[in-house]
């Protein structure tokens, strides 16, 4: 019987709150950097306001993505060995410390080349944290869920991303409005980074109160954990890792147009719109992304994970070029409309993700499999999406070249949905077959 309403008991509320709050704080920290690359760092750390400085600044977003697999491997190994909860506490702390320290790094005018080097090193620490965070948060929520509510429960840590985006843009917009353009570029941008300390204390309090995943506890009790989860993962499930990475890459590349700072930078520096106004527009779109993500997770419990994915990718394809046409009008209302409608496809390809990934892998390698698929997909999709977009726009002179690039990536994701089985409600005590091909029926 498909679920008809959202009801959570006390323990489940605590679990989804811990997953959502922690993910929100993690991605607030991550987005603060991503948004600041186009608005601040090119000037303060990478040599000026020219195109080359902007490209280098955007490239630092991508560098951290190459360290996500390492974070996923370490957190996945320990998460499959010692538990999901401990890893969530560690990754949250690592992200918070990295972000707060960024707010203390002097500009290149003060300490020269050491400034961008320190900034990039801290960004790498963020990448390590992000690589391990998602898998633990998603699995904690899904493994606590009733079998017919995994899509819904899994959507809660997912909405931490648009909430983090909303929070990051909101704090930056408020800081920019209060300090003014000159003081914002001089020192005001540091305030959102330093505020991470307060958020981390709150997040740690929430996460230390949650119980371990019951599915993992059962595996631990029967002593069926894998001593080295990566070995059986890549020996028996490597095709799932690849397909999972392609699915996320298509969502991530498109999502990073808004979250990675490209649209903000394009609107401010090419269309000459007010910085605070643009950040407010992205905040509104983040609300749309939140709603569509929850709706995507809920619908995935009623109709399956993959049908909702396919609808999302088709919407992304259909809206790709109208999106850029509306952004090019430089009309704020139309830009908001473009961004909000853009988030429908994003939500439908993001909300069902935790449930789909969790049901793809057996428990003893689930954290490793989900985290590594996610991390590789982030490299293929979001790592250099803003940099590629900036380079394409500069080389061709038109933002529609970016639309072509994103349409190709989305099409690859759509094809990938036909290479994996939908297993809604599959028992977590049973290991699904490692072969992902849709025609490989049990």
Automatic annotation (TrEMBL):
What is the recorded membrane topology of this protein?
Multi-pass membrane protein
| Family annotation (InterPro entries) | MFS (IPR011701), MFS_dom (IPR020846), MFS_trans_sf (IPR036259), Sugar_transporter_CS (IPR005829)
Going by the UniProt record, its keywords in alphabetical order are: Cell membrane, Membrane, Transmembrane, Transmembrane helix, Transport
Identify the CDD domains for this entry: MFS_ShiA_like
Where does the protein end up?
Cell membrane
Task: Tell me where it mainly resides.
Answer: membrane
The record's annotation in SUPFAM superfamilies points to: MFS general substrate transporter
* One CC-aspect GO term: plasma membrane
From the UniProt record, list the coiled-coil ranges.
none
User: What PANTHER family does UniProt report for this protein, alphabetically?
Assistant: SHIKIMATE TRANSPORTER
Name under which the protein is recorded: MFS transporter
Q: What is the lineage of its organism?
A: Bacteria, Bacillati, Actinomycetota, Actinomycetes, Streptosporangiales
